[in-house]
Specification:
25% of the residues lie in helices and 25% in strands. It is an alpha/beta fold and 506 residues long. The protein is globular. The two termini are 41 Å apart.
Length: 506
Amino acid sequence: MAATKKAELIVDKAYTIGEVDKRLYGSFVEHLGRAIYGGVYEPGHPTADEHGFRQDVIDLVKGLKVPIIRYPGGNFVSGYNWEDGIGPKENRPRRLELAWRTIETNEVGVNEFVTWANKVDAEVMMAVNLGTRGIDAARNLVEYCNHPQGTYWSDLRRAHGYAEPHRIKVWCLGNEMDGPWQIGHKTAHEYGRLAAETAKVMKWVDPSIELVACGSSNRGMRTFPEWEATVLEHTYEYVDYISLHTYYGNRENDLGNFLAKSLDMDEFIRTVVAVADYVKAKKRSKKTLHLSFDEWNVWYHSNEADRKLEPWQIAPPQLEDIYTFEDALLVGCMLITLLRHADRVKIACLAQLVNVIAPIMTKTGGPAWAQTIYYPFMHASTLGRGTSLLPVVKSPVYDARDFEAVPVLECAAVANDEEDTLTLFLVNRDQEADLLLQGDLRQYRGYRVERHTVLTHDDPKATNTMDHPNNVVPQEGGGATLDDEGRLEARLPKLSWNVIRLTRAS
């Protein structure tokens, strides 16, 4: 057994990053695979409610405390006619869905999804089609969703049984328009002009909404970050956020390198912030643009199976990654990265929520269960509300194939003065050694360790399945202590996700 390594930590209330927007813990549901049909919606299921929504899925989603959910795509939205999904279901058309090569039945549309989102206590983050459509369809959708009454589209919504407006606040101006795979792919200038004109009209319909412009689909795009600079030249004064998307995988089975990929995410964020601030300076604007990291996750397990799927099925099992314990560790590192940029990243969406690269899996007609990545997301979402602090960390490091000086300890700290709590989220990346953590928390004298939760497993490839849903689950009793002088001591097991929560002693 390797000798225990040591790390040091200082948390000072004066070193603040920013307030954690609750929407940092958002998610994403696309008309893709079994995300909708067989995921959130399955009328024949034993737990289905009067609307056909699975109650077992609702319960698991509510456990994540997701405040906002992006819908309906994703690549899907760039070929979607939103009018197909409203009105009597028996009149809705079946369409060839070209993005994922399936048949879309349109049984679920905007009204049904808003109904479901209300059941899980989430707002909807609506995307508009800027691939095959544009200004007219976007303004009509805002009117349908948000205008109270007295116009064609608002009265049509009322005729469909929704007297009150949906009041959708956040809207995405298309999806991944820099990608050649996208229906209606555009150059940065083409997209920037269309997004700016669409944004203007959408805000004329409802001035209260917030808009997200498409940033690069990932940091590896050849047009990154020139895409952001060009798009923001056109849209800066009309939009509130620029989007970021990223997915990581461990195809080379190199665990040390895989767990370091959150450093790539960190650099991605820093670059987009720099570009946004460059455009702000160039335009002499007083507005600071924020970031919407509205797709992020691990995605690679299902790639080979997806290539073998027959096209034109209804809700086939697409993108159904079965997540491992090591995936949960990287998701934890990515959550920490988002928290350490809470001053600029105000919205983020774990992509996706049910069945499709998701923390929640279902069997059609059968049970639902939590995947490994469910747990770090749940911990961060339920305990990571407040002010993100900047911890001073001294950690051992290692070199990986694509990264140098990777810290063994990854850490974020969130203080909540209203609840008198301090929560530390910690990952030990070391594959061989436990990490002895010594923390200077002198400003938190009089606090006590309420909990030290640990997620770990002997096998990095361990998974949760329908037959063994509790194979990888967090355990309490990690053993962290805080003495009367505010000195924290904790042993973080090798390859582990840890949550240490301090509360003021009564």
